[in-house]
Amino acid sequence: MKLHPIIAPSILSANFAKLGEEVDSVIAGGADWIHFDVMDNHYVPNLTIGPMVCAALKAHGVTSPIDVHLMVKPVDRLINEFAVAGADIITFHPEASEHIDRNLQQIRDAGCKAGLVLNPATPLTHLTHVMDKLDVVLLMSVNPGFGGQSFIRSTLDKIKNLRELIDNSEYEIRLEVDGGVKLENIAEIANAGADTFVAGSAIFSQPDYMEIIEKLRAAINKHN
Ligand code: DX5
Ligand code: ZN
Q1: Active-site residue (options: 37, 67, 88, 195)
Q2: How far apart are alpha carbons 71 and 117 in whole angstroms?
Q3: Does the CB atom of residue 193 touch ligand 1 within 6 A?
Q4: C-alpha 223 to ligand 2 mean position (Å)
Q5: Contact 35, 178 (CB under 8 A)
Q6: What are the structural domain ranges in the chain?
Q7: Binding site membership of 145 for ligand 1 (Cβ less than 6 Å)
Q8: For range 27-42, the mean pLDDT
């Protein structure tokens, strides 16, 4: 069963000099979650934001769920720090963890929703033995590290396979897609079986966040 669609703007493409305002604007424009990309210049070749920024957004008054995408290695310490900082969802890459099952449990024990992130070449078999510990699976449709890259089209088949895997399981797991999601391809991505859509440059490059979020949602709904 496909869950109701969620649009999660990635603040990686926001203007960091006025981050609070940017987040307020996308939420006012209809964003469901705020996608928060954490990069460490080790697991991925870029350096972004940490728990202090997450806590600052919460203190600023952000009540929408914060979807923390960890692109860091190791993940153990930052899971707890982000939970304390107010994260609602925490996902990590299996390649960045020595103990995947333990880290998923750690996220839930900290009171957050837990998920794994699979890179374009990382197989779905990583999910097999932890389905009961997943609230979300995030499929990367670009190689992680930067915003503004092009959607890798082989992800569409992977989305279909994951949709089947989730539907044949007894679990309610969100299927989230991240990277190169645009107005031109979001319907196709929804049609393949995604229910949660991260979009960075597609939203923050536009002058009117409400208008683009409405258009994205309309494109998703047309194919649902
Ligand atoms: C890439 C990040 C994405 C990124 C998406 O490593 O995980 O969340 O911000 O940006 P766009 O939507 O511009 O591809
Ligand atoms: Zn991301």
Answers
A1: 37
A2: 9
A3: no
A4: 24
A5: yes
A6: 6-223
A7: yes
A8: 98
Ligand 1 atom, smallest distance to 200 CA: 12
CB 97 within 8 A of CB 75: yes
Q: Is the CB of 9 under 6 A from ligand 1?
A: no
3-state secondary structure of 128: helix
Q: Which residue is it, tokens 């190169």? A: 180
Distance of alpha carbon 107 from alpha carbon 194, whole angstroms: 23
Check 32, 88, 178, 195 and give the catalytic one.
178
Kindly report, residue by residue over 163-222, the tens digit of the pLDDT. Answer: 999 999 999 999 999 999 999 999 999 999 999 999 999 999 999 999 999 999 999 998
Measured CA distances, 200 to 50, 73, 172 (Å): 18, 23, 26
Report which bound ligand comes closest to the CA of 197. 1
Q: Cα(46) to centroid of ligand 1, in Å?
A: 12
Strands 174-178 and 196-199: parallel
- Token pair of 65, please? 């769920």
Q: Is 37 a catalytic residue?
A: yes
Q: Ligand 2 center to residue 146 CA distance, Å?
A: 9
pLDDT digits (tens, 9 = 90+) for 81-119: 999 999 999 999 999 999 999 999 999 999 999 999 999
Question: Interhelix angle for 51-60 vs 19-28, to 10°?
Answer: 60
Instruction: Name the CATH topology of 6-223.
Output: TIM Barrel (3.20.20)
How is residue 47 annotated by DSSP? B
